[in-house]
From TrEMBL:
Pfam families: Complex1_49kDa. This is Complex I-49kD. SUPFAM superfamilies: HydB/Nqo4-like. GO terms for molecular function: NAD binding; oxidoreductase activity, acting on NAD(P)H; quinone binding. PANTHER family: NADH DEHYDROGENASE [UBIQUINONE] IRON-SULFUR PROTEIN 2, MITOCHONDRIAL, NADH-UBIQUINONE OXIDOREDUCTASE 49 KDA SUBUNIT. NCBIfam families: NuoD, PRK06075.1. Residues 1-21 are annotated as: Disordered. It comes from the Eukaryota. Residues 126-398 form the NADH-quinone oxidoreductase subunit D domain. Belongs to the complex I 49 kDa subunit family.
């Protein structure tokens, strides 16, 4: 290390940045080597959850595993549910009803908004903007009320099923969502007023944690973090699924790849998600939300209680651990989750449980780029960079 002759300093200091909930938001840990306030070296550690999300896939049937996906990125569990069942349905060559696809898209985009609002509130709070956190939590609570009435839960929703949904949306769902969409842009406008041209916010975020387009691709960044570096890549456009090709929306792209651009990209993404939800509501089809195959979807209660065939199908799916049984084979399916590409690689041996499940979570890929973003910067920049990446500890777990 070359020493500045004008500095009166000793040896570099090693500091554990985390794990603590403020700033690192959970179990993250970064070992940093400092020269005063300057970061010379950073070594990120995954944390201490050790829940074994992938291994659990070998011990749960395909529908039971949905509750595990809730707990990966716990800020957007509906998106996790969505991505996982799409992979299983691809393995089984299932086409779910059109209404089911539209409801999934609506909830996935509302989940994107909820996820981004929490990211916005907590990231701003980390840098001292307390009021923005209150805005973020208020909007999230409005969406959580909708999620609770739809799924029965606020956080761990477990709403999707292989071949459909747990149940259809409730009476009044469309009215509640439209009410939210009518007021939400005003909140975003107020947040823009508080932050976007705020001198303190700009000083803390502009030219901090810069990642070029080439480096972003090399590090495997996806989602808002990739697009903020100037790469126009969104799976909803590039590899459409669930009728996304039928929706009119824009993909915001940044230029500088810094914390400030990652903020602007997410702010615009929320507006675009609102556009998608509005179009989905306007064209929401009638019909069932589950495939008409009792070897895949549960029979109605009337069938289960009223005739022997329904009772047997219910028993085979639930009671004896038989579950749905995809053919032997393997599949990879990726969706554009709020943080980026969320991919599920599933190997089936033809039984009711996966032989192997491997997950490609965006946070796992983004965390490896942290040293590139913070080395040479200040200690205070670590907080800004981590907040801009929205790294979720549950997704890092192996």
């Amino acid at each position: 290390m070359r020493k500045d002759p004008n500095r009166v300093s000793g040896e570099p200091m090693t500091l554990n940045f985390g794990p603590q909930h403020p700033a690192t938001h959970g179990t993250l840990r970064i070992v940093v080597e400092l020269d005063g306030e300057t970061v010379l070296k950073a070594t990120p550690h995954l944390g201490y959850l050790h829940t074994g999300f992938e291994k659990l896939g070998e011990h749960h049937d395909y529908n039971q595993y949905i509750v595990v996906t809730d707990r990966m990125n716990y800020l957007s569990p509906l998106s996790n549910n969505f991505g996982y069942v799409l992979a299983v349905e691809k393995l089984m060559d299932i086409q779910v009803p059109e209404r089911c696809e539209y409801v999934r898209v609506i909830l996935a985009e509302l989940s994107r908004i909820a996820d981004h609002m929490i990211w916005l509130g907590m990231g701003a709070l980390d840098l001292g903007a307390f009021t923005v956190m209150l805005y973020g939590f208020e909007e999230r609570e409005k969406l959580y009320s909708i999620f609770e009435k739809t799924t029965g839960a606020r956080l761990t929703t477990s709403y999707t099923r292989v071949g459909g949904l747990m149940r259809d949306i409730y009476d009044g769902f469309e009215e509640d969502v439209r009410t939210f969409l009518s007021t939400f842009p005003k909140t975003l406008k107020e947040v823009h007023t508080l932050l976007t041209r705020n001198r303190i916010w700009m000083d803390r975020t502009k030219d901090v944690g810069v990642v070029s387009a080439e480096d972003a691709i090399d590090y495997g960044l996806t989602g808002p973090c990739l697009r903020a570096s100037g790469v126009d890549w969104d799976l909803r456009k590039a590899e459409p699924y669930s009728y996304y090709e039928e929706f009119d929306f824009d993909v915001p792209v940044g230029t500088n790849g810094d914390v400030y651009d990652r903020y602007l990209v997410r702010m615009e993404e929320m507006i675009q998600s609102g556009r998608i939800v509005q179009q989905a509501l306007d064209n929401l089809p009638d019909g069932p939300v589950n495939v008409d195959d009792y070897k895949i979807s549960l029979p109605t209660k009337e069938d289960a209680y009223g005739n022997i065939e329904g009772l047997i199908h219910h028993f085979k799916i639930i009671m004896d651990g038989h579950g749905v049984q995809p053919p032997a084979g393997e599949v990879y399916c990726a969706t554009e989750s709020p943080n980026g590409e969320l991919g599920f690689y599933i190997v089936s041996d033809g039984s009711g449980k996966a032989y192997r499940i491997r997950i490609r979570p965006p946070s796992f890929m983004h965390f490896q780029a942290v040293p590139h973003m913070i080395e040479g910067g200040m200690v205070s920049d670590i907080v800004a960079v981590l907040g801009s990446l929205n790294i979720i500890a549950g997704e890092l777990d192996r």
